[in-house]
Amino acid sequence: MSTDFQQARLALGTRLRELRSEGSLTGREMASKLGWPHSKISKLENGKQTATAEDVIAWAEACGRPDAAKELKAHLRGMETRYRTWRRQLAGGHQARQQAGIAESQRTRLFRGFQESVIPGIFQTAEYARWMFTVSADFHQSPRDTDEAVRARIRRQELLYEPGREFRFLVWEAALRMRVCPPEVMAGQLDRLTGLMGLSTVSLGVIPFSAQLALPPSHGFWIYDDRLVIVENLNAEMWLDDAADVALYARAWNKFRESAVYGRPAHALVASARSLLETS
To answer: Which one of 1.10.260.40, 2.40.280.10, 1.10.10.10, 3.60.21.10 gives the CATH number of domain 3-80?
Structure first.
């Protein structure tokens, strides 16, 4: 969990405690009034549990301060823009997250991204995307809406053909060789990459295993213009819109770019990964 997110959760907990005290309610009285376990009151006030919008509305009303709900929800939205657990995002399946990605992409002209182990979603074939969504749904034990999610991801790729947009992506060579799907699906995906390298809107660099790295790869990220960075990890996705965070990831992207190859050398790395599939 990010330090910024935890600090925001602690700050919200402090405000919840203040409202309860202003309402002259003990923790146990508050729990009884809301019909919650007393442990939930303690966890929310001490920043050990993330409140929902319904929680803060109920809290404000129980304290006799329904007017405070707007303030608390604004605080919560600010937290959610930074840290979004997969458990929450995938509660109804993957399609909703894909739709959010489409909305954010439509207002973006310059995309910069780095992926260390998988092909970026904007470049994925339907078959490769299907495997990614299936693996994710199995791991997170989320509802399977694979067909709908795949269709949404493919719709997003229409942006690749719109003049005026730029897609500058970097992948580590591992992304070309990682066996995350059957060989025939990976072969089609690598063929797709080769074709996309010829698009005027696409700049795809590959960081070879043999490259001297200016910065060790750790996790993938997307930069939307100069206003937003989306970072994925195992349990959550962070949406970072602080200027310092965006600048940090832009600097990381530039460091990775120093180690990348383009054009014929990049094509050669894709072709090498493709040929290994035929001999395996």
So the answer is: 1.10.260.40
